[in-house]
Amino acid sequence: MWAFFHRMASPKIFFDLSGRMIPWFLWSGLLIMVVGFVWGLAFSPPDYQQGETVRIFYLHVPTAFMSMACYMFMAITSAIGLVWRIKMAHMVAASAAPIGAVFTFLALFTGAVWGKPMWGTWWVWDARLTSELILLFLYIGFIAFQNAFDDYQTADKASAILALVGVVNIPIIHFSVEWWNTLHQGATLSKFEKPSIELSMLWPFLIVFVGINLYFAALVLIRTRTEVLKRERRSKWVRQMFAEELN
Amino acid sequence: MAFESFGDFLHMGGYAFYVWLSYGVGLTSLFGMLWLFQAGHKKQRKDIVGFIKREKLIAEQQANNT
User: Fold this and answer.
1) pTM of the prediction?
2) Helix A127-148 / helix A169-179 crossing angle, nearest 10 deg
3) Which residues of B33-61 are buried (b: 16+ CB within 10 A; e: fewer)?
4) Which residue does chain A place closest to B45, by CA atoms?
5) Which of A18, A113, A212 to mutate to test the interface with B (most CBs of B within 10 A)?
6) CB–CB of A100/A137 below 8 Å?
7) Closest to A10 in 3D by CA, of A216, A247, A238
8) Could you please report the per-residue DSSP string of A97-138?
9) CA-CA to B35 of 20 to 30 Å: which in A30, A47, A177, B19?
10) Quick check: A242 contacting B, CB < 8 Å?
């Protein structure tokens, strides 16, 4: 296990190995995700209160979950990069940031489009929605820091510190529906309780959930490989690899 | 199937606008990322090839001049 992570800290080994892993994550993720979406859109039953709008759930909840999971992933890889000075970890964090930003945007967008017919408003400044919006700003701040400095070391350090400070926001998002009065409904799924959802709705959700995680892994790896090439373009192994391709 | 007909499916019980707007933007963003990242990766490869070629050219010219 540790030996594996140690080896992956080398950009060359990471580049080679991730190149072989991407097709597996990508195609399984795409396939599983599409099955889940089709199931959710066409085969799962309508909700007794929310009617057909409940189908937005299968898009809204997985993207909202991923917006937070991706942030934690980014914070952890940033911390690894800071503590052990592993530049590969910073590259992974930098690659995850825009993906997380898209997930956060989607959670907010699908939430607004769901809120309009159900709550009667696109947006309210309540705890859940506001803290999720702050998450989007944290992602944007991270990306801005990555691009604000000429050398990667400074950019990595600045954005990693921002990512770690922003972790406070994650429990706030999670517990916001319990701590404050809000229009937003409580958690549907919990590790400790029986889910408050019919099995016919739980299944397509779980399928999308698994698929979107695999798809996320593929996206992160694709972007990280681009990042490796960008940062290591002057290194010997990259030159050798391309010299072989040119001949 | 939760719907009687394909027309019903598109109609979404009167919520067609909200459901299809969510999924339209959602799926476009999700799959758009893949397209964008792969295009970015290809461009990065091209840049490096250009970089190496240019270097070679400069080295050859310098060799010719001396």
Assistant:
1) 0.93
2) 170
3) bbeebeeebeebbeebeeebeeeeeeeee
4) A229
5) A113
6) no
7) A238
8) HHHHHHHHHHHHHHHHHHHHHHHS-S----HHHHHHHHHHHH
9) B19
10) yes
